[in-house]
Amino acid sequence: MPNTETSQSQRRTGFSIHVLTASGALAGLIALQSVIDGHIRSALLWLIVCQILDGIDGPIARKFDVSLHAPHIDGHVLDLVIDYVTCVVVPTVLLIRMDVVEPRLTMIISGLILITSALWFARTDQETEDVWFNGFPAVWNIVIPTFILLGTSQSYAAIMCVLFCVAQLTKVKFPHLVRVHALRPATYSVTFIYFGAFILLSAQYPSGPQWARYIVLIAPVYLVAIVAWRTFAPHRTILGISITDHS
Fold it and tell me: Is residue 54 in a domain?
């Protein structure tokens, strides 16, 4: 009898964690409505809520063995569905609403984002064995808000959008910021500082301190460096450090 009760408790826990993941759709809907209503600060903050939910549900699911105790729901598929809404669709509507690129290019860029992102989410080789992503992992919920927070020029934003779209279809390696073991202390530190500045600018949009803008602008240089290292020289060690650390 105790074993049955434990099993039922585990199933309820597993299902609750799936509900937590699915709640990202609701947060995405609120963000979308905020974009439509022109409440951009609110939209930016709700997109951050989506990022937080996406960041915590995976570790929690792995800790409680959700795939074992709630197998009737595929957590991976659920996560992909929610991510396509919150990481792609809502930010694309934000791009349209805020004229992030020139009006004559808006629908072209938006369509390209939606199509290449859909293809990326359907990839069977999304991750490497050391949990790096193959191709740009469709985090448009970071890219497009960053353009808005920094006041990026329409031409530069359009160029960057096209480059990221193309990158989604390549095997350029991008780190899973939470799960990659290589350089974890440095990656965690840069990520923490970056998102601190990102959240502050979002909360104070359209104002915010200039130092936070500098952080949001400069911090991605670290990402570019480790992406280039893992993609083009994965077996090279620097100062005795390997970029393909599996430990």
Answer: yes
